Amino acid sequence: MMNGKKDRVVMLLLSIILPLNFYLIFKFPAPNETLVFVGFGVLGAGVLLFALAFSALAKNRNQGIVTTGIYGMVRNPMYLGGMLMFLSHMLLGQSGLVVMTAIAAAIGCYLLALSEDSKGIEKFGDDYRRYMESVPRFNILAGMIRRFRGTGHK
Fold first, then answer.
1. Could you point out which of 8, 20, 28, 67 has its C-alpha 20 to 30 Å from the C-alpha of 92?
2. What percent of the chain has pLDDT over 90?
3. 24: Cβ contacts below 8 Å, ≥ 6 apart
4. How far is CA 71 from the centre of its chain?
5. Does residue 49 contact residue 70 with C-beta atoms inside 8 Å?
6. What is the spatial distance between Cα 18 and Cα 81, in angstroms, rounded to a whole number?
7. What is the pTM of this model?
């Protein structure tokens, strides 16, 4: 299968898992309210990352590799945000099925991020490789430290 086809299959699975998890979370309330509270925090962090990424892309449309804003700290903020949102489902739902589907969805987000890096190399070559060397894929804490020390992408 070509990368494009694999990506579409993964996106289809994610689009099935999301409403399934919502249904399960609302149909079968979680027993531990403290974990639910933490889950909303994780969900909020994921939504924030996703929104920051979307905003940076919208502002820098058609300008090559986006390295400003959140993209200067982490290469795949949308997928990291998606992973956090799906992983929050485990805390919000606290059922075996939700845990399994959330893990599958997080793995799907990871695979899509790998595919995006491959596409970046194909499209931008060495410029993207240098970006990959200076900005971590998902480790936002390391990316923030690099950025504030001035050792991140320039």
1. 8
2. 74
3. 93, 95, 97, 98
4. 12
5. yes
6. 14
7. 0.87
